[in-house]
User: Which sequence fits this backbone?
């Protein structure tokens, strides 16, 4: 039995092994020619593909160990964000931010630079304070800013190239509650006001169906403690599924379907513990490309891409998602050159996406964008070296940590070997 990712577009013949102890994991790694670790399979790129050994560390024993100052905790790297945030809540603690789905493992989310939204909030990778890492030799070592510092800097956003993280020291904040508001606004208004809204709100993002002039705006605002919400989703996907299935059969109807759907009233409100409000249920399968744009170019880039889709009446069935993310100093992070606007482009998994993404990517690149590592892109080694000044140092640390390329696969070899 093989493995496939969440969308079904990446598969591998290797069976997934789920070791129940670190010793078992070490034995598996020592005996394998090639190894890749997987979490929930939410990467759209073939990061986890392997014809040899794939490991999932979800069953490794572990517990949350809160630091004396309560500003961080050592936590199991293989736990899902859902499991982790629930356990942290019981301790009166929380992640400062998270994305809008929570099945991913913490290790996988950090390894790919996964993020939420907020002009002053970085990706999950910025929350890492240290890693217990099982290396290519089957030995474990700790790395943080003071111990094995270069390994730590590379491991903060690692793509799984330096070993398998089994424990992570993660920065935390006191537990908090959020109030969610979803409403429909005109694109012309959002285009002018988003940057101001983003500076005024802790979290604000929007979804934009390219053939409509209306936009769905979502804000999350800290609020007083309240009861947990009755649901973990922000929108009902039932009607949207029907629209998508019609568009898959009759793609020329996409513009009309989107305009008709956006005549629906969008006005949703939820309140509850932050870890219950951040995530949403996402059951509709799609492919995704995301580019992190220089913040100042974000809205202009989105307008350019949407204009191209409208001119050609292209059947892009999902909305664009637009978010703001803070800058960081991580070696191969798309946010390390300054604050970004993250633009996510999706396509229904039942419909063609490669040609659409290739043309859109050219626009994103022309405006200075860099892709999310786990979302669809066509970077090569020369692109990585041109876009990331620290790529050489990242590669040197990789070669020292894994001289025989045990944690490489063909996709990663094309970027870093």
Assistant:
């Amino acid at each position: 039995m093989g493995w496939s990712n969440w969308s079904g577009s990446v598969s591998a013949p290797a069976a997934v092994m789920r070791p129940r102890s670190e010793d078992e994991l070490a034995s598996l790694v020592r005996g394998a020619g090639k190894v890749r670790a997987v979490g929930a399979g939410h990467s759209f790129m073939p990061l986890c593909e392997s014809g040899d050994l794939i490991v999932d560390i979800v069953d490794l024993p572990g517990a949350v160990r809160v630091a004396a100052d309560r500003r961080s905790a050592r936590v199991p790297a293989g736990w899902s964000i859902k499991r982790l945030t629930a356990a942290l809540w019981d301790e009166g603690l929380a992640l400062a931010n998270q994305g809008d789905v929570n099945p991913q493992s913490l290790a996988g989310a950090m390894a790919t630079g996964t993020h939420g939204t907020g002009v002053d909030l970085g990706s999950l990778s910025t929350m890492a304070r240290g890693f217990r890492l099982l290396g290519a030799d089957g030995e474990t070592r700790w790395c943080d800013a003071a111990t094995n510092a270069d390994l730590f800097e590379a491991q903060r956003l690692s793509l799984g190239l330096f070993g398998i993280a089994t424990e992570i020291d993660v920065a935390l904040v006191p537990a908090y509650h959020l109030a969610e508001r979803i409403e429909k606004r005109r694109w012309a208004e959002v285009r002018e006001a988003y940057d101001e809204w983003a500076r005024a709100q802790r979290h604000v993002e929007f979804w934009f169906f390219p053939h409509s002039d209306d936009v769905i705006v979502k804000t999350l605002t800290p609020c007083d403690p309240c009861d947990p919400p009755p649901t973990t989703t922000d929108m009902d996907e039932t009607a949207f599924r029907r629209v998508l299935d019609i568009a898959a059969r009759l793609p020329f109807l996409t513009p009309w379907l989107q305009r008709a759907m956006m005549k629906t009233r969008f006005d949703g409100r939820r309140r509850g513990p932050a870890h219950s409000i951040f995530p949403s249920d996402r059951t509709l399968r799609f492919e995704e490309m995301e580019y992190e744009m220089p913040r100042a170019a974000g809205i202009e880039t989105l307008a350019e891409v949407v204009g191209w889709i409208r001119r050609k009446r292209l059947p892009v069935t999902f909305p664009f998602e637009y978010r703001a993310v803070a800058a960081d100093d991580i070696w191969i992070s798309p946010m390390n050159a300054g604050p970004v606007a993250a633009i996510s482009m999706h396509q229904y998994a039942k419909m063609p996406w490669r040609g659409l993404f290739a043309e859109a990517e050219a626009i994103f690149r022309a405006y200075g964008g860099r892709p999310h590592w786990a979302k669809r892109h066509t970077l090569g080694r020369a692109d990585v070296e041109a876009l990331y000044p620290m790529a050489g140092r990242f590669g040197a640390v990789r070669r020292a940590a894994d001289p025989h390329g045990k944690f490489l696969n063909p996709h990663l070899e094309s970027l870093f070997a």
Observations:
- Residues 298-312 form the longest helix (15 residues).
- The first strand starts at residue 3 and ends at 4.
